[in-house]
C-alpha cells in the first residue's frame, strides 16, 4: 500500500507537458502502444523520451524531475506521415496564412509531410525552422515540382538547380518519355528520389517504373498502362484542359483496364520497388458531392479563402463540379471499387502502400483528408493494424527514413500521437476534437486543444476581414 501511495505522490509531483515546449526528459505512462510495424497493440507500456528521441519502451519509474503524461486507458501510435501535402499560403491567388495548414496537420497527428510542389524557397525556409523547433510544424521533406520542360537538356538543368537549392526530392507532373528518362537519370545520379503525377500523358506507369521513380501519386498512369488499345475510349469532343471533361472521364477509366495487363503493371511496380501513394480521399467528392460539401468541420474551421476556392469554378484546379450529375457519381462509385481492389492487390503482391491527402483541393481540408484516408483504406479491405502501418512506417520507408521515424521504438524520433480512444476500432477518434490529446513531434508535445484554438482564431480573423 505504501508503495502505491509513493508512486501516486511521485506522479503528482512531476511536471505536466506544456504545449510547444520540448522537455529534456518525458515519460508517457501506462499506454496501449501500436508500434506501427504491423504488430498488434500492447499494454501497459511506458515510453521514455529524451532530447527528442525515444530512449526506451517498457516499464519505468518516473523521476521527480520528469515531465509525465499519464496515458492509462489511452492509445499511442507513431506520428503519421503525409506523403502528399501542400504547404499552401494562397488559394486562387488570395493569401492564406500557412500556419493554418501546419496546425491542422499537427492536430490530425501528422508529424512528417512530404511537400510536393509548394514554392521552393519558402518551403525550404519552413523546413529549417521546423527542424530547429522554432515553429509549430511537422517535419518537412521538400519535393519541388518539375512540369513539362522543353527538352532533355532543360530537364537535366532543372534537376541540378533543384539539388543545388537543397531539395529532398523532385515531383514530376506531365512528361514526355524522353524528358522523363533524362530527368530520372539526372535525379538518380544526384540522389534525388522522384514522386510522379502522371496524368493522361505520353508516358504511363510502365515508363515511370522503367525510369526508377520512387512513388506513383494518385492512380493516374496505372490503369492507363493496362488499356488494350493504349488509349481510353474518350468521346470525340473531349478536351483534357477542360477539367469538367478531365475528371468526368477519369471516373470511367478503371473499368476499361484489362485485369491481366493491370496485374503485370502491379508486378513491375513491386519488382522495381515503386511505392503507390493513392490519395484515396482527394477524389471522393466525385462519388458523393453532397457529403463533401457538408463536412461538419467546415462550420468552424474552413478558411474563407479555401471556401471560395472550393466552389465550382473551372478556373480553380479541382473545382470541376459544373453540371455534376448522378451519372457521374455512379461511374465514380464504380471507379472506386476497381481502385480499391487494385490497391489491395498491389499490397498483397508485396507493394508498398503509403498515404497522402493532397488537401487544399476538392473539398479536402488539411489533415482531415489524411484521416479520411484511413477510413477509405478500411473500406478498401485493409486491416486497421496494417492501415496504421501504411500511415506511419510505410511513409518513412518510402522516404528512406525507416530507421529514424515512423514507429514507437527506442532510438527512433519521438513522433507520437496520444489518443483518448482506440483508433484500431474507430479511426474517427483521430479527427480533431474527437480523441487526439497530444501530437508529439521530435519530443515537442502539442496540445490538440491549443492547436485547434489557434486554427479557429486564424479562421475567425480571416472571416472578420472578409
Could you explain how this protein is built, in words?
By secondary structure, the chain is an alpha/beta fold. The chain folds into 2 domains: 2-78 and 409-447, Roll (Urease, subunit C, domain 1), CATH 2.30.40; 80-398, Metal-dependent hydrolases (TIM Barrel). Helix content is 37%, strand content 18%. It has 16 helices and 18 strands. The protein has helices at 2-13, 98-107, 120-131, 152-165, 177-189, 205-211, 243-250, 259-271, 289-293, 298-301, 304-310, 326-348, 368-380, 384-391, 393-398, 448-465, and strands at residues 25-33, 42-50, 53-58, 67-70, 75-78, 80-85, 90-91, 94-95, 110-116, 139-143, 145-146, 170-173, 194-197, 215-217, 275-277, 416-419, 436-441, 444-447. The strands form 4 sheets. Strands 1, 2, 3, 4, 5, 16, 17 and 18 form an 8-stranded mixed β-sheet that branches. A 5-stranded parallel β-sheet has the order 11-12-13-14-15, covered by helices on one side. Helix 2 runs antiparallel to helix 16 (448-465). The longest helix is centred in the C-terminal third of the chain and has 23 residues, at 326-348. The termini are far apart. The model is unreliable at 1-12 (pLDDT under 50).
